[in-house]
Amino acid sequence: MCNKNKIFFSTIAIVLFLSICVYAQKKCMLIGATPGRENSTYDKYIIPQLEKWGYVIDKKHNSTDLPSYMEADYAKYDFIFLSETVHSSLMGPLRSIPLPMMNSDGFGVQEIALAFAKERPCNLIDAVQIKFLDAGKDHPLAAGIAPGTETDMCARTVVWGKPSIPIIPIASLASDESKMLVYGIEKGTKNALGDEIKHRVAVVGIHAFGYNNLTEVGEKLFKAGIEWVLAENSTPITAKTGGITTNNRLSYNSAGSSHSITCSIAKSSKIKLTVLNILGQAVQTVAHDVRTAGEHTISLNTSNMPSGAYILNLETGTTSFSKKIIFNK
What we know:
- By secondary structure, the chain is of the alpha+beta class.
- The chain has helices spanning 2-24, 43-52, 71-75, 216-231, and strands spanning 28-32, 60-62, 79-82, 101-103, 122-126, 130-132, 150-151, 157-161, 168-173, 176-185, 201-204, 237-241, 244-255, 258-265, 269-277, 282-291, 294-299, 308-315, 320-327.
- Helix content is 16%, strand content 35%.
- The strands form 4 sheets. The chain has a 9-stranded mixed beta sheet with strand order 2-1-3-4-11-10-9-6-7.
């Protein structure tokens, strides 16, 4: 009887362990080209990579279906992998970024697509050396690769872009640091049309032609990008646009009945600090004025805030980024 009990409880433990493992797996909404497009077959090379890293793909979603998708179509997924097989003109419905996104399409920078730039400064180029930038030092998107390192991330074709919105610059063409190949966009940033990007986006500009020719570095960058967008915590970021680099920070402070927000601003500028609910709706504007460079602590009025999750959103002259907080009365 004792042995039977041991076997029974061991079986239960194994079943529970496997259930937890399955439950913990993140579900990927892979968006690729319409079947029949010339390069759509290249998705077959990236799907096994995603599955090898532990992500679940129940089916490949076709880019032409995006205009008809509703909120429920995205709800069961944890993140989007936007394949470079998607035609840029079909990306428009994703501008609101309904999920954290790993984007391999450098052409998505243009306004007709995800609106990370006003124009279309992007192009394909044969596999070349990329350079990791000082601005991305120690950032998770750099996958542990040191600034100044020059290497390649695939053996065929890459796609560079020139975003005009604030980004976290990680790697560029070695020959031209203005041509970005790897970068991040923090949630809360405004796109080139002035709309808020509601989730993190990581861009690793490897063309679909290179999916079956990824180097070890390319694999690391894809994996790091997915892990970073899924984290969506508010690690302090370095955002760069128009040659201006800033380091801004947000923190929420609570002591008894006193609640405040501390923001660190790199340079004197007009700021707008807003509290949003989890639906992205403004609950209150905490500050909307000009602040000098440095750290500022601002009182938070919590009288009309029920306990729960909120998002702090800070806009300055050069950046816009967010921090998720949990408020308890």
